[in-house]
Design goal:
- By secondary structure, the protein is α/β, with parallel strands linked by helices.
- Strand 1 and strand 2 form a beta hairpin.
- Helix 1 packs across helix 2, helix 7 crosses helix 8 and helix 14 runs parallel beside helix 16.
- The two termini are 57 Å apart.
């Protein structure tokens, strides 16, 4: 086919080579009608127990969910009865020797489920096993994955055998040993760790074996004594602790989910904002009740949480940052910073007197707007507050909350809200910003590449319009240390510091689109020798 034109049909006896990337694609195209026909026929029977099907290249999976194992067997029997003639019509054959049945249960008292008898359909009698291997994953009845981690902990024997390759006197160098461990051992030990390593999962049993493995590897790399502390030899060998390594890999895995196609099965399980219009699965997080979502612990929950995070965004080519178009180039005399040496008590007292004078003066000038901005955080929830004073009263108040936002970003956002409200007020020629985060205010005029660049661009655009309206318009930034508890600044800072608990119990207002920051991984030196 080429565009809308297609050639006449012809026969070919040339297949796809072994391991070719076309093999799974052609297999999915050929097998997709099988699944669609099976779903239509199984739904037409109006079976009370829902059933679904999944296909992985040359493997298929029939799923049924019910508390009674006999009912699930009946549903699977009906599904297999419908699927067999469809496969036969498509020229496909079921390998009964590879067919298995497995039951998952949460019951504390485990009983042996009955076998699935497919002999009337020409198949075998399938008896459930204690563990089930599928696509390289080992499942147990309660999904603890202990057997899975124990099986892939065979990397421990590989670590033991690596001693033949060298010791502290001869053989491989320490850097080569470290490279060998990271490239040949860690991928085996951490294979499919997303199944059992997620937030809220009981991982102590699995991490214990992995820590033993990495300790042996660190002793071999460094040639240290057996009694050496684990953290010390890991630092010298340049190996981060295994749980931090899993956090790093898990975070990358969750972010890669954003690049999955719309039709991917994982998309159907995610929240609506991440599903890309995919039809939600009946077990998707969007289909669960609020109580179920609170109790749910799953890798899907971690993916939703990570995709909600706001990553640092940069716009270095924006016109506001071009030389000659920046605020520092066009209006260098329209803004000023009044700071104080915080380590000098005498200077701070004198600075507070100046703040009192400025505050009293702003109350008597109609063309002056005084903005007091502050931000605080508690329980990983940041609150940004800005009060706009004009005359003897507060004309506007703004309050925003976000989860896991950096303090500097929250402070800058409060300043941004205050500036926006002040310059939009008619008749204002002078804007005074009082904040305890003068370093955040300086980011407004910092045109270098930094994580708060989008705020810088937005504020610069607003200030440029403000300065162009009237040559007399200008803005001042005053430093006000929070520990001095200057009364006008202490008033808005109180809700900023105390609203964290309230916001955690209720639904927080997510500014910056579910604003969440990236946690920094612990840096341990010793990667070079």
């Amino acid at each position: 086919m080429c565009g809308t034109a297609s050639s006449p049909p012809f026969q070919t006896d040339v297949g796809v080579g072994q391991g070719s990337s076309l093999s799974p694609i052609l297999s999915a195209i050929y097998f997709a009608p099988v699944i669609r026909i099976w779903e239509k026929r199984i739904n037409s029977l109006s079976i009370p127990i829902p059933a679904s099907a999944l296909s992985f290249v040359d493997g298929g999976l029939l799923i049924s969910q019910e508390k009674n194992s006999e009912k699930t067997n009946a549903t699977l029997y009906a599904g297999f009865n419908i699927l067999s003639p469809i496969l036969r019509d498509f020229g496909l054959v079921v390998e009964h020797a590879k067919s298995e049945v497995f039951h998952f249960t949460r019951a504390t008292k485990q009983s042996d489920p009955p076998p699935l008898d497919l002999s009337p359909l020409g198949g075998p009698i399938l008896r459930p096993k204690d563990t089930w291997r599928y696509l390289g994953f080992f499942f147990d009845k309660k999904l603890t994955f202990r057997y899975h981690t124990h099986y892939y902990n065979r990397a421990m024997s590989t670590v033991k055998s690596m001693r033949m390759l060298g010791n502290s006197n001869r053989g491989l160098s320490p850097s080569q040993k470290r490279l060998l461990y990271r490239t040949c051992i860690l991928p085996i030990a951490t294979y499919s760790f997303q199944l059992w390593y997620f937030k809220g999962a009981p991982v102590h049993y699995s991490l214990k074996d992995l820590r033993k493995m990495q300790r042996r590897a660190a002793l071999w790399i460094t040639g240290a004594f057996r009694t050496s502390p684990t953290w010390g030899i890991e630092a010298i060998a340049g190996l981060i602790p295994i749980h931090l390594h899993l956090n790093k890999l898990g975070g990358r895995h969750n972010l890669r989910t954003a690049s999955l196609p719309r039709q991917h099965a994982i998309r159907t399980l995610l929240d609506p904002q991440h599903s890309k219009s995919a039809s939600p699965h009946r077990m998707a997080t969007s289909q669960l009740t609020p109580k179920q979502n609170i109790r749910l612990k799953s890798p899907i929950v971690d993916i939703n949480y990570r995709l909600n995070e706001t990553l640092p965004a940069f716009d270095n080519l924006n016109g506001e940052l071009r030389p000659g178009q920046r605020l520092v180039d066009l209006f260098p005399d329209r803004f000023s910073f009044i700071t104080v040496k915080r380590s000098d008590p005498i200077a701070r007292v004198a600075h507070l007197r100046k703040l009192d004078e400025v505050y009293c003066m702003s109350q008597n000038e109609e063309n002056t707007a005084l903005v007091i901005a502050d931000a605080g955080g508690k329980n990983n929830i940041a609150t940004s507050v800005a009060h706009v004073h004009r005359g003897h009263s507060i004309t506007k108040r703004t309050l925003h909350q976000a989860m896991n936002v950096l303090p500097t970003e929250a402070e800058l956002f409060s300043i941004r809200c205050g500036i926006n409200q002040a310059i939009s007020t008619p008749g204002v020629n002078r804007v005074i910003i009082i904040t305890d985060a003068i370093h955040a205010a300086e980011k407004i005029f910092d045109t270098s590449c930094h994580p708060l660049q989008l705020h810088t661009i937005a504020i610069s655009r607003e200030l440029k319009c403000f300065f162009q309206e009237n040559p007399a318009n200008h803005i001042e930034f005053w430093d006000c240390p929070s520990k001095d508890k200057w009364p006008p600044h202490h008033a808005p800072s109180t809700p900023a510091k105390c609203l964290g608990i309230l916001a955690e119990r209720t639904s927080a207002i997510h500014i910056l689109g579910h604003g969440k920051c990236i946690s920094r991984l612990l840096t341990i030196r010793g990667s070079n020798f």
